[in-house]
Amino acid sequence: MFLSEAETEARLDDLRRRRAALDRAIAEHELYLDLGRRLARPDAAEPASATPAPAPAEPPRPDPARRPEPPRAAPAPEAEAAGAAARREGRRLIEAAEAILAEAGRPMHAAEIWERLAARGLTLPGHDPVAALNTRLWKRAQGGSVFRRLGDAVYGLAS
């Protein structure tokens, strides 16, 4: 039995939704495992020793024979232009994420937001665009912007 094109498209959409949900679950579990490993490391928190720490030595005196470093050159105009373009692209990305959350009318996971951003043709540098997007949204949510962090990688619009 062969499926019609509409049935095949519907099944593909369902499988993509399931894959996105699995990817989110995997990412969350990996995050918790990594956090647990970092917290369980014995060198992460050094126990207080019974011996007192040595007294700090005198601060080093400047060496009169040492020459001061020459002033650094200003960045090239091409670098400034590239930085300005990256900032514009970042603003465009955040504005699109805000529009997506407004259209959805509900909080969304960063992976869901990323799917819709990618569908609009937007890109993010790096090997994990969801993590990059999550970081950008998290930083803006802390700054009192239009975003509000509601959970691990879950964002909504501030009222």
UniProtKB/TrEMBL annotation:
Residues 91-159 form the HTH HARE-type domain. Residues 42-88 are annotated as: Disordered. Residues 5-32 form a coiled coil. Signal peptide: none annotated. PROSITE patterns: HTH_HARE. InterPro entries: Asxl_HARE-HTH. This is HTH HARE-type domain-containing protein. The lineage of its organism: Bacteria, Pseudomonadati, Pseudomonadota, Alphaproteobacteria, Hyphomicrobiales.
